[in-house]
Amino acid sequence: MVPPTAHSGGMTEGTDIAALSFEDALKELEQIVARLESGDAPLQEAIDLYDLGDKLRQQCAARLDAAQARIEAIRADADGRVTGTTPFAAG
Question: Which residue has the higher pLDDT, 85 or 17?
Answer without folding.
Answer: 17
